[in-house]
Every structure is written in structure tokens, then in C-alpha cells.
Amino acid sequence: xxxxxxxxxxxxxxxxxxxxxxxxxxxxxxxxxxxxxxxxxxxxxxxxxxxxxxxxxxxxxxxxxxxxxxxxxxxxxxxxxxxxxxxxxxxxxxxxxxxxxxxxxxxxxxxxxxxxxxxxxxxxxxxxxxxxxxxxxxxxxxxxxxxxxxxxxxxxxxxxxxxxxxxxxxxxxxxxxxxxxxxxxxxxxxxxxxxxxxxxxxxxxxxxxxxxxxxxxxxxxxxxxxxxxxxxxxxxxxxxxxxxxxxxxxxxxxxxxxxxxxxxxxxxxxxxxxxxxxxxxx
Length: 282
What we know:
The chain is α+β, with helices and mostly antiparallel strands. Helices cover about 15% and strands about 35% of the residues.
């Protein structure tokens, strides 16, 4: 696939502004329950919970059949059936706080086409800069991949998860958890709540657990282990879909002397479904 026709989208910007209330944080605490790290008294929004703010609110008539907003406005009109949030790299400069005005600037950074084992691939990188008042709080590079629907013959071999973890939690995903997270993030992608669509149209065995939800669970688990250390950097990469058909493990190892910790998601077959690294303050 030639991406030259998409080059006009590189540099395209999008802006959002919102007063940061405590309602999304309270709703997330109710959704995650014991899997959420305890909040302090300084009204800081926990790491990655900024995904509950600056939401895209496209009208119903502007949605495509898969539930995403129709392509061609901010993101390029890539003609491939599946769009996935493949990962992100984040830097936390200062906390976002409840009770202030936040702003987000987003820009399409790059568009690249590749040929993989599963067929055609188009990678789109989007840079987000999130400000608390007028101070930069979070820098995030989001990696979006568009691809063909894979077949059994083109599915990539799974990577085995690390054998030993310093700490872990077992999550049993169900439709209530997936529905609530979809609602909190205003995510209408049907693979997360519409089982007939996920199975019959996209050929998944069940509902797909959100990648950003799993990343949030990883950071929450790390925060519960080290509540007095600030998160400075975090990066995650989705490797294998996780479904609502079986429990999965949220795992991590203790940070090294530089503050770097390895984190991962493993399914019941011990396949590594998500790989992540975090850097805590020294």
C-alpha cells in the first residue's frame, strides 16, 4: 500500500480543552475496585487516567460500522479493516490535578506502510502534549496500526512470558468491566462490547480486552507496590489480543538501580500479550 496519498495528514493538528473534574476518577475507582492504587490527598489524577479526559465525541452519524469515527478528518483514511492501538511511549513531567483546566494538542507525526506476515500494515504515530493550566504535564506518542484481518495461517507465533514475577494480580475480565471502561473512555469500538460483531465480523473468539485498560492495570499494580515513587516514563506494546473468555495475569518485576521496571500481561497459556517498561524516580 502506497502511503504517499496520506502525506497531507502529517502535521495535522487537533486541540481539546477541558476543566478536569473528579467524576471520571471516581467512576474509574468504582470500575477497578481493589485493582486500583490508593489515591493520595493531593487530588492528582493517577498515571494513564488522563485517557478518561479529552474524549472524542463524534456524533452517531459520523461513526463507521466498527464504531470508530469515520476516517479522513484528523486521522488518514487508511483503507484497511482493522484499527488497533498498538502501544504508546509516555513521559510524565508533572501531575495532572483535579480542579484545573487541561489542554491537549495532538499532531499526526508520521505515517508508514509495511508488509507483514498478516498482510498489509499502516502505522500512524500521533504525538499528544497535555498541559495542566499552561504547564506541560504529559507527552505521549501513540502508535496506531491499521491491518488486514489475519487468518490462521498468517497469525504470528506467541512470545512466551517471563517465568518469574516479583508481583502479580489475576484479572477475570467480564462484560461489565469491558462495558464500563468503554463508557468511561467513550470508546464505541464494537469489538469490546458487541459479541456477535466481534465473533462474526472480525473473527475473534470473544470480546477483546482494551489495550489501554491492560496498560492501566500494569501501572496501577506498580503504583500499589511503590506508592511513594513517582512514575517518570512508561511504554507499552500490545503483542497478542486478550479476550473475556479466561483470566489473565498482570505481572511485574522490581525496578533496578536506575528505577526501570519490566511489566507484562500473560494469558492462561503463558503467552506474553503485552510488554511494558516503567521508570520510577530514583
